[in-house]
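tokens incoming
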């Protein structure tokens, strides 16, 4: 992959951004914008001609999700670096992207400096992440977990504490509302409560007790 000038492919169906992409890459000496495509299918059709070193792909694309497209590019070239672009910084979506072997994730809008820093991070470190997502990652590791709940139950508890509905939790965790209800019933059982308000009240009491004992 190491060449004097790295070839870049952008996949984004928002054509209003194409002028910006071209303008940004005109400023870079180390990176050359070889092509802009609007769909995964179009990018795959042009792949052999463009042979990109780095791909920037929007997550929300017509016909197919950008994350789903990663596997097709890996079949073409296992070493190609792939950075996902999205207006969404939902942590579960970010995790899905990396589980599918993305090398980076940037939230829109991106400016010339953000794009350049991401390219340098990929070139020299092999990965890149937007600052807002990096802060979420740090927050996730700092968040208090209750050891007698499963990892999924702790995730549900966290969203419940933020006031999320069952439907919202299901969307965040990529599960069905009935699955969320199943986990919540298990949480109620372990807490020996019968409602959301009772559960949150007991959890707050447990959190206060935890901090007192840790002081």
């Amino acid at each position: 992959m190491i060449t004097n000038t790295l070839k870049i492919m952008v996949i984004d169906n928002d054509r209003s951004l194409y002028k910006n992409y071209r303008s940004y890459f005109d400023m870079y000496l180390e990176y050359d914008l070889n092509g802009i495509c609007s769909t995964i299918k179009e990018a795959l059709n042009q792949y052999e001609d463009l042979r990109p070193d780095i791909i920037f792909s929007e997550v929300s694309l017509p016909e197919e999700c950008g994350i789903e497209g990663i596997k097709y590019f890996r079949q073409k070239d296992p070493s190609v670096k792939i950075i996902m672009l999205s207006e969404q910084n939902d942590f579960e979506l970010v995790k899905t992207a990396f589980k599918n072997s993305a090398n980076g994730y940037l939230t829109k809008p991106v400016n010339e400096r953000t794009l350049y820093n991401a390219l340098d991070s990929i070139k020299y470190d092999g990965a890149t992440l937007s600052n807002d997502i990096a802060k979420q990652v740090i927050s996730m590791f700092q968040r208090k977990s209750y050891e007698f709940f499963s990892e999924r139950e702790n995730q549900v508890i966290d969203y419940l504490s933020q006031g999320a509905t069952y439907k919202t939790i299901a969307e965040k965790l990529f599960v069905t509302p009935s699955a969320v209800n199943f986990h919540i019933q298990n949480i109620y059982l372990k807490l020996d409560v019968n409602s959301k308000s009772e559960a949150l009240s007991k959890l707050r009491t447990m959190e206060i007790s935890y901090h007192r004992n840790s002081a």
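note: DSSP finds ten helices and six strands in the chain.
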